[in-house]
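User: Just a sanity check before I run the rest of the batch. Below are the structure tokens for the first item. I only need the designed sequence back.
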């Protein structure tokens, strides 16, 4: 029996698809800002504290480190942890995880806002469940549970001994004289590292909306990634914001974060203004406890099988007869299309016909979600403004049962700033919208992260210089240039992770585990074989990129019709910057199989190998 709520989408013949599509395009057009990414204010300079200050844990003084290590991993979030665990498995113990947070977790360390939960099936999303024997309590786990699980993983793999917390890497310079990287940090560390792995995650640095008069406002301001419980009351895991009962609060943004926060602000604040430029898609939550008997009965390998099934449903295509194990917001379109095909006896449809069916189903699902707003929000004008008009995956889909009803509270008002493309301005006492000033005590930025901006701005590392001092920022200014998405010519012994020119799995941690395995293989083979330097040759890199581009799937038509966001480089189609980088068009599992064949061949083909003996003595 399906666990998914049987809410049914309206049939296609009851939807005027051309008219809705025209509305989608109009909604996109009125939001496109010519400033695109430049509209945002970075959390550097006078706003650096928003990024750098840790409101949760004090920075403990320590002496700078000046030694040598095999590997420096920049990051101790999911990606940095997965790489570290795989290095351990490959027999490399001598490494550091360096992170500016005070513990493992990355985004799950920093984000402690009220209502924080994962929007993905925890049985896929939370990594290494079989290895750690951990059963997520619910389908959608709370942030506090996910961070606790990060600590379990770190203990399981013995990562605490190797962690340098509250430390920001500032300089990374290749030294050909000793064939090592010099890694400098804001704590005065000067570490010599044989290898460096950049594992900072795609949504690491908070950004601020560019609003006129930002510095005029005299009230309280903070970003959701650094929640100030001191000000609001409550604490992480106990979202009772009692100190807001006499406060007028505004929150900017209605993305995945704000959707989770708004119900708590509406419940506790004296007055809440929700400032919305583009509405999210918000389905019902249907959260539920994990059944321990079901969990205990799972066969070996169940998590990877579930992740693969989820990936098919969310990002590729379910095979004929393949069940949808995850059954939630992410998989509805695939599940429905497969049900249609099953009813027709599995006709052999072309990719174009499959895409057409998906598109029609997309309109039907979005129509259902818009009807959900009408059913839950009393005021018709507010309901209309909350309806999302774009295709399903133009923004990160959300699920929440309390967001819409919050707008029925007398103390909550939606401020729809779509027409003005953002707030008019801030003043000393509040904000101005359509000429009217609204007084507030507190302004909360749920304004997201640097995702598609230039890498130097996103990464916050002053220098990453490879051979001849070449900056990675310059080398990649017009796009990634990699071998296997993980190494680059001119940057010996350096590994990149995440969404570059690699496979992208719908479950991030799966991508990171597999990348960690590949990096662990190359690094450990180099050490075993007495190789000082591994670096892709120019020819191998060119051939890799040529193949990647020859099999690329062009989804620009879909993406460019979306309302602007970091999913489509804020609507700026002139630059190809996408959260997923340039993904491997043949699919994630084809990419993985390709890497596995490469490792099994054991030749490290495409890499130039400089033996340890060629090391020049240090001066
Ligand atoms: P987003 O980037 O998704 O949202 C930022 C919000 O700020 C948008 O609503 C945006 O509007 C709004 N905004 C920006 N500038 C202005 C402005 N000048 N005036 C008004 N509004 C403005 O950030 P989130 O923190 O919500 O989410 C980031 C990502 O983090 C998610 O996409 C998801 O990947 C992840 N996340 C995951 C969760 C999980 O469950 N696993 C939970 C929370 C977040 P507009 O859309 O018009 O640009």
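Assistant: Here's the designed sequence for the first item:
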């Amino acid at each position: 029996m399906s666990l998914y709520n049987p809410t049914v989408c309206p049939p296609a013949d009851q939807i005027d698809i051309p008219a809705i599509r025209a509305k989608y395009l109009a909604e996109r057009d009125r939001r496109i800002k010519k400033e695109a990414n430049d509209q945002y204010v970075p959390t550097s300079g006078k706003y650096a504290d928003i990024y750098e200050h840790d409101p949760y844990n004090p920075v403990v003084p320590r002496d700078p480190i000046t030694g040598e290590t095999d590997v420096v991993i920049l990051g101790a979030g999911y990606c940095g942890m997965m790489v570290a665990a795989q290095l351990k498995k490959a027999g490399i113990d001598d490494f550091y995880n360096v992170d500016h947070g005070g513990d493992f977790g990355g985004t799950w360390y920093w984000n402690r806002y009220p209502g924080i939960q994962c929007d993905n099936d925890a049985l896929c999303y939370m990594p290494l469940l079989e290895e750690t024997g951990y059963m997520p309590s619910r389908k959608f786990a709370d942030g506090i549970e996910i961070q606790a699980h990060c600590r379990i993983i770190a203990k399981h793999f013995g990562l605490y001994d190797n962690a340098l917390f509250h430390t920001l890497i500032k300089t990374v310079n290749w030294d050909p004289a000793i064939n090592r990287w010099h890694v400098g940090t804001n704590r005065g560390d000067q570490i010599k590292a044989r290898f460096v792995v950049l594992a900072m995650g795609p949504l690491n640095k908070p950004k601020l909306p560019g609003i006129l008069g930002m510095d005029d406002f005299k009230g309280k301001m903070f970003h959701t990634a650094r929640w100030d419980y001191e000000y609001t009351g409550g604490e992480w895991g106990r979202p009772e914001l009692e100190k807001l009962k006499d406060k007028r609060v505004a929150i900017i943004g209605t993305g995945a974060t704000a959707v989770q926060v708004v119900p708590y602000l509406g419940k506790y604040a004296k007055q809440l203004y929700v400032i919305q430029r583009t509405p999210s898609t918000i389905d019902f939550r249907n959260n539920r406890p994990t059944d321990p008997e079901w969990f205990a009965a799972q066969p070996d390998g169940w998590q990877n099988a579930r992740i693969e099934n989820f990936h098919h449903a969310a990002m590729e295509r379910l095979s004929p007869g393949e069940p949808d194990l995850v059954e939630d917001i992410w998989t509805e379109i695939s599940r429905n299309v497969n049900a249609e095909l099953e009813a027709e006896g599995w006709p052999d449809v072309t990719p174009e016909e499959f895409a057409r069916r998906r598109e029609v189903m997309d309109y039907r699902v979005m129509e259902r979600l818009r009807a959900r707003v009408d059913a839950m929000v009393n005021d018709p004008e507010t309901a209309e403004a909350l309806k999302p008009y774009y295709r399903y995956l133009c923004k990160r889909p959300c699920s929440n049962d309390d967001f819409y009803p919050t707008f029925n509270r007398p103390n909550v008002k939606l401020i729809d700033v779509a027409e003005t493309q953002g707030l008019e301005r801030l003043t000393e006492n509040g904000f101005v919208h359509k000429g009217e000033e609204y007084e507030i005590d507190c302004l909360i930025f749920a304004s997201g992260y640097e995702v598609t901006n230039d890498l130097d701005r996103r990464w916050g590392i002053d220098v990453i210089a490879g051979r001849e001092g070449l900056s990675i920022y310059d080398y990649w200014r017009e796009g990634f240039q990699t071998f296997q998405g993980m190494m680059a010519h001119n940057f010996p012994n350096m590994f990149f992770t995440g969404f570059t020119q690699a496979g992208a799995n719908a479950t991030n941690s799966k991508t990171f585990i597999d990348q960690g395995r590949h990096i662990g293989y190359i690094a450990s083979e180099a050490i075993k074989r007495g190789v000082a330097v591994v670096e892709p040759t120019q020819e191998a890199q060119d051939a890799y990129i040529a193949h990647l581009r020859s099999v690329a799937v062009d989804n620009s038509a879909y993406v460019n019709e979306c309302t602007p966001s970091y999913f489509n480089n804020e609507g700026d189609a002139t630059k190809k910057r996408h959260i997923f980088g340039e993904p491997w068009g043949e699919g994630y599992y084809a990419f993985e199989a390709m890497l596995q064949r490469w490792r099994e061949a054991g030749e490290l083909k495409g890499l130039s190998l400089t033996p340890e003996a060629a090391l020049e003595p240090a001066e």
